[in-house]
Design goal:
Strand content of chain A: 5-15%
Helix content of chain B: 25-40%
Order of helices and strands of chain A: EEEEHHHH
Helix content of chain A: 25-40%
Number of helices of chain B: 13
Distance between the termini of chain A: 30 Å
Oligomer: heterodimer
Shape of chain B: globular
Structural class of chain B: alpha/beta
Largest sheet of chain B: 6 strands, parallel
Order of helices and strands of chain B: HEHEEEHEEEEHHHEHHEHHEHHEHE
């Protein structure tokens, strides 16, 4: 798995929520993977953010996660089955690391190149 | 010969009128097809109406390869819905969101358009034993028919034939063409979704299911349990077309059902001439009645049990976190323990050793997807020789 640090700009003003975290911070995909496990994200979304029809309505977190603003606002203010995670529960640093981890997940192969997915 | 009660003919005719005149009828089947003939009849009704069919999998009701096979969301645009032996009609046409709103109760919503006509055939309505029989959340039905769905399908098919007007036939045919195109596109999307996390460790549930299918596809196979939630991949990816290829679900939530059900079905498959039985056995489910492993070994019941060992229940996580959030707490207590009460880790249960101790051939834990195919080949040979075999596979949660 490809893991790398990315620079995530925190300028989230969405859904009435402002995450004031300075202009930017260096987030770590490696720490993000650990936080993804610690906070139980993987239990619904899978270790690779692949999602499931059973727990995330088929929505995937990765590859190509939502833009940071929408992503962070959703985590903080969700009114869906996923409860909102406040800063007291999940710090901005951890959230940024999780986002960096999701950004680091590579795109899947085309299913046509996977023999088992073409088995009849 | 068994006889099941068919529905009242007048009600059947009324239902047929609604279905024949509908712009977008949808059939939903749960515990409907009791026999292979039930599948044949349901195909006949669906093709007559060119109506999409949602199989809720309480039984194997409808071929998954058929172009009219549809996902649950197909109810959204229906104007007439007929439910065949639905365990929960309310949840078929409504949604429930456990999001803590409404004083903690959550939010109910509808999945269907206003004015959608609802028809039901259910034998549960015949089994009256007390004043209040309609359990769970109540759904108002426009045409409610007590009776057995499979026994009623022949008369319903004839009634629909008589109600379809000539000026509707072109529209019905066009509906079928649209369904065919939609099915092909959906199939490609499903297979691309299965490619996500394909090489991941723990092994993805899609990879698990397709490795199993590749190992059994040339046999006369029967999927005798798939508990513990593998994102419904077998029903989405396997060409399940025959009634015996899927035995259905428990009928309730059924935790602990998978292991004993699979051994019982494998016994039946053995005794009708050696049909190959395979189960996708979840870890939490096996913790309820592991003694059934001994029963299978003792009586030489051939069964390939491939574990979906995601090392947890993963079921109450959101509720646990919601309650923790009220107190600004993290539900996870750290390390590899996961959010409280949702994981089965540390110590990790060695199910292969458990099975071996009760007389099974077993192997595991298998964490590398590249090792799964070869292990399955070995296990299939053991089962073909008449013994039960278990593979303990570490998997993604869903």
């Amino acid at each position: 798995m490809r893991r790398h640090g990315v620079l995530v700009t925190l300028a989230a003003v969405a859904a009435g929520v402002i995450i004031s975290h300075g202009a930017a911070l260096a987030a770590s995909a490696e720490k993000g993977r650990a936080a993804f496990v610690k906070f139980g994200c993987w239990q619904c979304h899978g270790y690779e953010g692949q999602g499931s029809v059973a727990t995330s309505g088929g929505k995937v977190l990765a590859p190509d996660p939502l833009p940071w603003e929408g992503f962070s606002a959703f985590v903080r203010t969700s009114t869906t089955a996923m409860p909102p995670y406040t800063e007291k529960v999940l710090s901005n640093d951890d959230l940024a690391d999780i986002y960096a981890y999701l950004q680091s997940i590579p795109k899947p192969k085309d299913y046509k190149t996977i023999p088992l997915l073409n088995t009849k | 010969m068994r006889c099941a009660p068919a529905c009242d003919p007048n009600a059947v005719q009324e239902a047929a009128k609604l279905l024949a005149a509908a712009q977008n009828p949808v059939i939903v089947a749960d515990r409907a097809a009791r026999t292979p003939n039930g599948v044949r009849l349901l195909v006949q009704l669906a093709e007559l109406l060119q109506a999409r069919v949602i199989d809720q999998q309480g039984r194997m009701n409808f071929p998954k390869t058929h172009y009219l096979s549809a996902p649950p969301a197909a109810v959204n645009n229906a104007d007439v819905i007929i439910g065949l032996e639905l365990s929960d009609y309310w949840a078929t046409v409504n949604s429930y969101l456990d999001n803590g709103e409404n004083g903690g109760i959550g939010v109910n919503g509808t999945r269907i358009k206003p004015g959608t006509k609802l028809i039901s055939i259910s034998s549960v309505d015949v089994i009256t034993k007390s004043n209040y029989q309609d359990f769970q959340r109540f759904q108002t039905i426009d045409v409610s028919m007590p009776g057995d769905a499979e026994a009623t399908l022949p008369s319903l098919i004839e009634a629909v034939k008589s109600e379809i007007q000539n000026d509707r036939k072109a529209a019905i045919e066009k509906r079928g063409e649209a369904a065919r195109k939609g099915h092909e596109a959906a199939e490609a999307r499903t297979r691309q979704a299965a490619a996500l996390a394909w090489d991941a460790s723990p092994i993805s549930t899609a990879r698990l299911c397709m490795e199993i299918y590749a190992a059994i596809k040339d046999l006369d196979w029967s999927l005798v349990a798939s508990e513990g939630n593998v994102s419904n991949w077998p029903n989405r990816l396997w060409p399940i077309e025959k009634h015996h290829q899927w035995i259905g679900r428990s009928g309730g939530y059924g935790v602990g059902y998978g292991a004993p059900a699979s051994v019982g079905a494998a016994l039946a498959n053995r005794d009708i001439g050696g049909r190959f039985s395979v189960s996708i056995q979840s870890d939490g489910d096996l913790m309820y009645a592991p003694g059934v492993l001994w029963t299978a070994a003792k009586h030489k019941i051939p069964l390939l049990s491939v574990m979906h060992n995601n090392r947890g229940y993963h079921q109450e996580l959101m509720h646990v976190q919601r309650l923790s959030s009220f107190r600004n707490r993290v539900a996870s207590i750290g390390n590899d323990l996961g959010p409280i009460g949702t994981s089965i880790m540390n110590p990790d249960i060695e199910y292969h050793k458990l099975a071996e101790s009760m007389g099974w051939w077993a192997k595991g834990p298998i964490k590398d997807p590249a090792q799964l195919g070869p292990a399955l080949k070995q296990a299939v040979e053991v089962v073909k020789d008449g013994q039960p075999a278990l593979l303990n596979v570490w998997t993604q949660p869903r």
